[in-house]
Amino acid sequence: MSSSLSQNPNAKVIVDCILATPFTLSVGEVIGSSKDISQQFQDLIRIKRQPIPQPIPFVRNVQGIPPSASFACLASCPLITVHFLCNGQLVKAIIDSGSTLNVVRNSIAKTVIKMPMDTSHIMHMKDANGGTSKLLGLIPHVSLFCGAAKTWAHVYVSPDNNSDFDLLLGHPWAQGNTISIVEKDSGTYIVF
């Protein structure tokens, strides 16, 4: 016994015909028929986080500004000066986000801060003019108030010199107290 289909020696053609035959299934039947199909549907409908493209840094035209003029602009800009209260006394501080240290003059450390200095933390500091000075030690956890805002700083003690400020607060102070320096048309603001 044989049928007309069995007479056709090309089984691949028959399989292709069967696979090409359309028939109706519900989505539930399709998903329920195979774990792999169910997983593929889940993967297709799952919300995927799109990576944020990283901006490509570039510099636009910098011609036309002679170095001496740009230096004059930097040199003539006033320093950010803030008065802090430390142990009930006013201390004149300069905020310098480019500094890697917090530094206080020795006379202010002795007369205002009045806390023990750890002399095992001696280091050398380079100043903006290229000079080097030896710092005398470290005073940790100095509290500084600006109005109602209380901040903390680990300050290195420098020998007394003829600087116009008592205290230099650098990047460690700003970062440790989550301080922001905001530039606006109306001026420079420190946000506590």
TrEMBL record:
The lineage of its organism: Eukaryota, Fungi, Dikarya, Basidiomycota, Agaricomycotina. Keywords: Aspartyl protease, Hydrolase, Protease. InterPro entries: Aspartic_peptidase_AS, Peptidase_aspartic_dom_sf. This is Peptidase A2 domain-containing protein. The keyword Protease applies. GO terms for molecular function: aspartic-type endopeptidase activity. It comes from the Eukaryota. The keyword Protease applies. One of its GO terms (biological process) is proteolysis.
